[in-house]
Amino acid sequence: MSFALALGGGGARGFAHLGFLLELEEHGLRPQAVAGTSMGALVGGFYCAGQDLARISQIIAHLDLPSFFGLPKTYRTLVEQAVAASFLEKLRGRPWWETAAPRNSRFLAFLRLFTKGQRFEELSPPFTAVACDLLSGEEVRINVGPAYLGIGASAALPGLLGPIRWRERWLIDGGVVNNVPVTVVTSKAERVVAVDVTVPLGAEPTTLVDVALRAYDITAQTLRELQISLARERLGERLILVKPELSSIGLLDFHRLPEAVEAGREAAKAVISELLS
């Protein structure tokens, strides 16, 4: 049975996609097409670029990603730092697009290496990354041009990375508009497997920054649930929704990659028989 994959965003929780894909590979299952948002775009892009996912998992597990990208322990702290930096930019009279972004440069170099410098047109199976146009708010589906650039745009989480320039547009994280991109692959195969790595809302907010982030999370959750509900109405039994157990893993808990990978494997085991039938 042919199937397509939609890999959702969720920061470090998205490492579950590595385990999910590894489990599929071990059972000889290969999708006809893949779409990814944010971390789903990163993992999906590596997979379609022909990377050995087991080896990639080992390499990333031994990298100190927070130090490499200059990340704090929590997304809240990251947003607070971004707000402070923005205030300084305003005082200096410099717009954000004129400010150097070393974190962006390091991230794009990282992606270019792990996608082997390939273009979307060279990837197999065909792959689409989902991003959001910062100025218009439109969903942007990227399946042409340098793979690293499209994946970088899809994963440009506000506060973590600056917007990415792509074809005269400024793009940010696709999770803003389509975090589990089922709609991108509905016509690509008999079945669509959607891997949602988001988790329920967390602890009660304690600061105004927490409140702002919670408001964003609520909006994102509502949009995601609506999109999945509409996809289920349209696809019926053609849609297989998978939700790995990742509730204890934070957005920036990159050091917990082995746990996320294992959660992805366990989630895949629950649907393997359905995909083999």
Structure characterization notes:
- A hairpin with a 5-residue loop joins β3 and β4 (139-142).
- The longest helix has 28 residues, at 208-235.
- α1 packs across α9 and α2 (39-48) runs antiparallel to α7 (147-154).
- Helices cover 43% and strands 14% of the residues.
- It is α/β, with parallel strands linked by helices and 277 residues long.
- It contains ten helices and eight strands.
- It starts with a strand and ends with a helix.
Write the layout of secondary structure elements.
Elements lengths: L2 E5 L8 H11 L6 E5 L1 H10 L4 H9 L3 H5 L5 H18 L9 H13 L12 E7 L5 E4 L4 H8 L9 E3 L2 E5 L17 E5 L12 H28 L3 E4 L14 H13 L2 H5 L1
Parallel strand pairs: 1-2, 1-7, 2-3, 7-8
Antiparallel strand pairs: 3-4, 3-6, 5-6
Short description:
This protein has 277 residues and is an alpha/beta fold. 43% of the residues lie in helices and 14% in strands.
Q: Please mark out the parts with pLDDT under 50 across 5 or more consecutive residues, or reply none.
A: none
Total beta strand runs: 8
Query: What would the principal axes of the Cα set say about the shape?
Result: globular
Strand content: 5-15%
Proportion in helices: 40-55%
Look at the helices and sheets and give the structural class. Answer: alpha/beta
Order of helices and strands: EHEHHHHHEEHEEEHEHH
State the end-to-end distance: 7 Å
Kindly report the average pLDDT value: 87
What's the number of helices? Answer: 10
Instruction: Evaluate the radius of gyration.
Output: 18 Å
Largest sheet: 8 strands, mixed
Characteristics:
about 280 residues, alpha/beta, 8-stranded mixed sheet, 8 strands, globular
